[in-house]
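Re: that chain you flagged

S.,

Sorry for the slow reply, it's been a week of failed gels. I finally had a moment to sit down with the sequence you sent. For the record, here it is as I used it:
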Amino acid sequence: MKPYFYLSVFVVITFFTSCNKVENNIFVSNVNELTEALKSVKAGDDIVLKNGTYKDINIKFIGEGTEGNPITLSAETPGEVFIEGESSLEISGNYLKVDGLFFRNGHSPKTNVIAFRTSKKEVANHSTVSNCVILDFNNLQRDQDNLWVQFYGKHNELSNCYLAGKTNGGPTVRVDLKGNQSIRNYHKIINNHFGPRPRKGGARGETIQLGSSFTSMSPSNTTIANNLFEECNGEVEIISSKTNFNIIKNNVFYKSEGSVVTRHGNYVTVDGNYFIGDGVNDQFGGIRIINTGHWVINNLFYKIKGKNFRSPIAIMNGIPKSPLNRYNQVTDVVVAYNTFVDSDSPFQFGVGTNIAQAAVLPKSEIRSARPLRTEVVNNVIYNSVGDKNPIIEHDKADGVTFKSNVIDNNKVEFPQKDGLVAMKLSLTDIGSNLSFPLSGFSDVEPYIGFDFEKITEDLLGNSRSKNNQIGAILASENINLNILDKSKYGTDWYSNEVEKKDPVTHNVTNADELVSKLKAAESGDIINLNDGAYAISKSLIINKSITIQSNNKSEILYSGDENTPALQLQPYGKLVLKNIKLKGTNTQYAFASLKENMSNHFGLEVIDSEISNFNYALKVFKQSFSEEITFTNTAILNCENGLELSEETNDRGDYNTEFLTIDNCTFNNVKQNVIDYYRGGYDESTIGGNLLVTNSTFTNCGASEKNRILINHRGIVNVNINNNVFKNNKVKLVALLWGAKNNSHSNNTVTNSGIIKTEENLKQKLMY
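Prediction finished late last night. Pasting the structure tokens below so you have them in one place:
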């Protein structure tokens, strides 16, 4: 067991008769000096960590500063003090500040990396963590859930920080309200840059979570403001609000696959935020509304193509008499003064209705309670390409007041609805590559509802007192936004902008060169095999982005031990294998992840290749995840097992890859697990994975398959099996599709291979 150093600050408060600020810098360069320094600090002291690496330390920062004389723990040079290994930071007391630390190359041995408490009773108040970075500081196993920043106490702040790369379960940041010391907390999460969070492959991947189901009746009064959320793709919820009276204001959600969700709790204000997509990706979402009393006002939705749960505005059905951890009915909600530009079906009502699944779900799970006393008014829609369904009613929207909304649908007809008027509008460039309709609807009389006089400003902070036109931005000249300038968010010393470099091609002529040059290559490089055969007896390690290719299908002949992979896919390992013949001796794996400690994702793309004579063509172990696995123009021959991604059997909605694509491939004499891709548990908010099998041929496969199904994809939400040939496969079913989800098949030729069957309501184990 590694030794840990528990560092405590015990501060005796000195009472001053004057209000003069006390400053005392105490420089430390190692753990022992830090320990000694912390024993005698007082209000106004600044403990300065000299530049360097501090490894395997668990810091307990306990102290009593004052508003005028806080106690500070800071880096000598921000960004030059590295916290690594198994390390964490806990804070309790009053008026404490942490500044300039860089958490990297490790993980926390605790349930959090930074916590605003040191015990259940000892919490922090009026304390700040700022100008810090947490990067890829992941637990070794994906199922080892933890938090990177965990709030307790009151009036605490996370500001001007950069957090990115969380791959294991658990929100990046969570506000906890357990105990009166943490209720009505008025925390602030402001001016941060939440960088890319990769897809997790299941639930429990939020970027920010405010409370939990079982504290959802408590007031939190947390503010999330002026942050940049960039490619926050962990799961369907980017921000999950589960408490009352929170404010989500003036944030930018840029190319993030998910939504702001009022999951539990009531009276959340979502005001003046930017949701920016690319007009293509249908995973980029907006705001999903559940529960009571929310105000969604002054927001801009730009090229958001999300569907259903991820639609620009998704107003859900609830469960009658819902328990705290499910879906309460939407009531008394205001959605007003928002603008939508080139965003598909911006208003969707009754999202999540599942009455059709009543046969396989308990009554307590049926979402049949439609929104009541909800006002959707004074909104503007502009579509440069017309939308045939700008409004979708998954269930009747008879409890919604729909007034004073306008649309320019580029002359495309749509179902008429009272309260949505077609008009001709034009766009104005407002900066940050955004264009926006600012005028053309001044004659539309805004709907005035109860308390609407409190909507005093537009998205840009302009007063509505004299001009209260509909839409998010009042008509104005010379608007020039710079909301995508990353220097406005996060630290002043770290940037996630990486200069692109051209890949280096390493030509190899023998097996020894293959091993040595693969090891020496940098991420993004290409290993080019000259014509011939390459005999290897130990796994090739893939721990960076690398391409291995040849011109004339050079062979890699693997003779390693049984149950070892020819190519071992480690954390950060992203492999493109192109135009290669890969052959084993029937007992090994062609490709496999690590059995444990997959602390980060891998990736695999196989093109124009041939895989033969392996026990498994692909073996993905539990707690391993790849965002994309693709086989194109490839033959998989004479293998005991094909592509197995079925070890996530915890039935919590987890799965091993987001996208599994098989295109124009040949499977011949693969005896079992031809394609085995599993997601377990009835988690309706997990809307993946994705399986595409197209233009491929399966012959003499599945002879040893115990369940007699050729392609297994139980629980996968999006499945498309089309234009394939299935011939002489000794199975009962080619596939069992889940009719209630997005499972489909078309134009397949099936000969002596059973049938493709659809089961409308596939029974799933409930997660809740």
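What I noticed first: The two ends are 36 Å apart (CA to CA).

Talk soon,
D.
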